[in-house]
Design a protein that fits this description.
By secondary structure, this protein is an all-alpha fold. Helix content is 77%, strand content 0%. Belongs to the sigma-70 factor family. ECF subfamily.
């Protein structure tokens, strides 16, 4: 696949005759990464798939609002992050489930689903991640799994770098305690 810059992609998307091609290229370039962050937040493949689709639909409908102050990647991640968090909130409200009940359902999914990869240690980490508050889990996932800088995460989450460092530190401490105790 040819790597295009954000500017090249935007130019393709902004012209009516190349809009579809440009958007297809945008999806090809970022679909796996968008899916990855959604999957780490919601765990269930079908839900992550839905969030990925919603993310690109929203991006398509709102591309005229993209101001270029961040990269397309950062903008897409912000949409995917917000959609993941919204999805989790809706799911909790829809089933009138407490956070603990939802957490238990997700832990059972980690144990029973053939779609969740990893050995016992990886599954234990996934369960420990579920116990984190959503914001801490998001920051941990973006920093640890996606290897993003605090500056990139700041643009995605619209949170200060200092706040992100604190969230990441708290997440790591909670995970260490959870893994040590479990």
């Amino acid at each position: 696949m040819i790597s295009l810059s954000d500017l090249d992609l935007l130019n393709l998307i902004q012209h009516p005759e190349t809009k579809e091609k440009g958007f297809r290229l945008l999806i090809e370039m970022y679909q796996k990464r968008v899916y990855s962050i959604a999957r780490k937040m919601v765990l269930i493949h079908e839900d992550a798939d839905d969030i990925t689709q919603i993310t690109f639909i929203k991006a398509y409908k709102n591309l005229h609002k993209f101001n270029g102050k961040s990269s397309l990647f950062t903008w897409l991640y912000r949409i995917a992050t917000n959609e993941s968090l919204n999805f989790l909130q809706k799911k909790k409200r829809r089933f009138f489930a407490s956070i603990e009940d939802h957490e238990e359902v997700m832990k059972k999914y980690v144990d029973s689903s053939p779609l969740v990869d990893g050995d016992a240690i990886e599954k234990k980490l996934q369960k420990a991640l579920l116990a984190l508050p959503e914001k801490q889990r998001l920051v941990f996932n973006l920093r640890f799994y996606e290897d993003l800088s605090y500056e990139e995460i700041s643009q995605i989450t619209e949170t200060s770098v200092g706040g992100l460092k604190a969230s990441y530190h708290h997440a790591v401490k909670k995970l260490e305690n959870e893994l040590k105790d479990g």
